[in-house]
């Protein structure tokens, strides 16, 4: 009887299992099963690869998924220059197993088109609508490997991120609220290819669909490093609202320095910003950088915070060579290494970036 009740309870539970697929078993027909234009795909070296050799072809593969508020991540390699006739659509939400059914509804990430961008679209019965317009030229290379992350909160806020390279750093493409389609039956890939130079050049891997986990942790300042008499680099613990972070009014320095005059993004690290101040930093003085009014992408506001730093150009005597260990095979209880011990005599943090240890004669 207990067994019957357990079975009945299990049958009532919604199918909310998460999906994790790396194609490493070499078979997309089971565990989990993917279906659609099966003859137009193969698994090559643990990746799903397009296999169609038909010009002007539009083809798809999809798998079952019931999570419509989730975090989706997947890896895509487009081994060609994208264009208006050569792109992929990754359906994160689809009401149909057949992603290309004309009346299908849902949401997809389009990678490529005339703008060589990565954007989020809503697919309505009547057509498609771009709802997050990604930065133009983001995937303008002749071979593009991208990890894509999309999340949708219970309040229907979509966020789209890209990591090109990949480098391990996700850049935000944007966010939008859209509640049109609240359920899903499938996830999948659509390839649109033009001429033969685009055949078999689409690769997909490392798909994960996991329940949405809300971000309730405010951003923090993790690093403040002076880079010159009026410039300092500031790094946050996570990606923050770019419009807020790019406002010089959000940053001020004690000791009479005052507000920043400009803020620049970093091309490689979305958490890093380069600040310039109107006034020079007094040398060898502990200053405090205050940051206010900056939120993470979920709207959590940074706590009132300040971070100490000191700017100065080291002079003779600030850094001392304290010990030289020149024995490559030490007698006992020491690692089999040679080293030089430096002592910072300045009372302030000194970056050794760019320093060299050399002999003058
Ligand atoms: Ca499989
Ligand atoms: Ca794989
Ligand atoms: Ca764009
Ligand atoms: Ca956060």
Offer a concise description of the structure.
With 361 residues, the chain is mostly beta strands. Helix content is 4%, strand content 43%.
Helices, strands, pairings?
Elements: H1 2-12, E1 19-21, E2 34-36, E3 41-44, E4 47-50, E5 57-64, E6 70-78, E7 87-94, E8 106-111, E9 118-124, E10 127-132, E11 144-152, E12 157-164, E13 171-177, E14 186-193, E15 202-211, E16 221-228, E17 231-236, H2 242-245, E18 251-253, E19 258-265, E20 272-277, E21 287-291, E22 305-309, E23 319-325, E24 339-344
One calcium ion binds at residues 25, 27-28, 30-31.
Tags for this model:
single chain, 361 residues, mainly beta, Jelly Rolls, Immunoglobulin-like, eight-stranded antiparallel beta sheet, seven-stranded antiparallel beta sheet, globular, disordered N terminus, binds calcium ion
Q: Kindly give the count of domains.
A: 3
Can you tell me the CATH architecture of the largest domain?
Answer: Sandwich
Query: What is the helical fraction, as a range of percent?
Result: under 10%
Could you state the order of secondary-structure elements as H and E? HEEEEEEEEEEEEEEEEEHEEEEEEE
**Average of the residue pLDDT scores:** 91
Strands, count: 24
Main sheet attributes: strand count, strand direction, barrel closure? 8 strands, antiparallel
| CATH first level of the largest domain | Mainly Beta
Q: What's the tally of helices?
A: 2
Small-molecule components bound: calcium ion
At the fourth level of CATH, the homologous superfamily of the largest domain is Exo-inulinase, domain 1
- Tell me the strand percentage band: 35-45%
- Give the overall form: globular
Task: Return Rg in Å.
Answer: 27 Å
Query: How many angstroms does the end-to-end distance come to?
Result: 90 Å
